[in-house]
Please model this.
Amino acid sequence: MNQNTIEEILESFAFQGKVVKAEPFGSGHINDTIRVKTETPGGETFRYTLQRINHAVFRQPQQVMDNIERTLAHLNSKVEQFPDVKVLKLIHTKEGRNCVRTFAGKWWRVYEFIDNVESYDNVRDPNVVYEAARGFAQFQNMMADLPAPRLYETIPYFHCTPMRYATLEEAAFLDLRNRLNDVMPEMEFVRSRRHLVAHLLNRYLRGQIPERITHNDTKINNALFDPTSKKCVAVVDLDTIMPGLALYDFGDMCRTTCNTADESEPDTESVQFDIKMFEAAVSGYLDTARFLTQAEIQELTFSAWLLPFMIGIRFLTDYLQGDTYFKTHYPKQNLDRCRTQFKLVERIETYREEMHAIVQRCAKATGHN
Model:
């Protein structure tokens, strides 16, 4: 996208001051992000985050933005109860809208940049993992009493593992890019575990696990930390906030904090499951998530297994379909991502009993028993 187009988009929003700088920022898989700096005539500067909403992924961008606006309004109503929490602030257009659609059909929104925080793409410190888990649990606590109506499901069936599995099998059957022969071991890996894909969904449908408002993308870099206190003070990237299971958030957090390797690591032997990080995640989550039922606590270990399995299926599906969903930087990156997730699943399977013991111990220590 050229600079003139960016300037036209920026002109739509009600910034403080005049835009003096706009440059690409971040490492997300889905949306394009631009860091914006403005300056007033008096020399005061402000920073903002401009993002393009990927409407190939989010088919109803206005619903995404309406969910976000309701969420931020609810969080802001609670800042006096939670003084350490920083809440994102949307910048509206000059006409008062929460986003703008260009003549080319692209959707853009702007947030005020949160200053004096730090984030991590990778972390090996249990204290940071504990704080991230506490931060995501606090986010769920604050959203638990959001008034009706129900939030939009911006990506229907997002964490529906049976559907993800069915989509994978369809991609394998069609084999549009002639890649199936490259991934037969991965297909067998999934098929040998397909009897487990509906476990959490079945418990939800039987009424044993409740629906909640969930973030649905709890990677470590979506938690922001105070650089002095090292406390988690904000949760960002709210595009996927919608109804779901709290267990999905916990499992995805473990997926990104307990893996010792990079998500695209081609050497799967370097992928290990860090049980100390898992214990930190469980401890931080249970210290704060006071809303959890016993059934949800019982499934924390399973959720830590399920989410890398599900994400691995999604990476494998995207590879078979021609890399149309996740951004890639080299030809077989989605396949490397898939293999990393499946190796993590294998590692977790060797730790199940120890993981269950950790959950039980932490639940007792935090008064959940």
Q: What stands out?
A: The first strand starts at residue 18 and ends at 24. The longest helix spans residues 300-321.
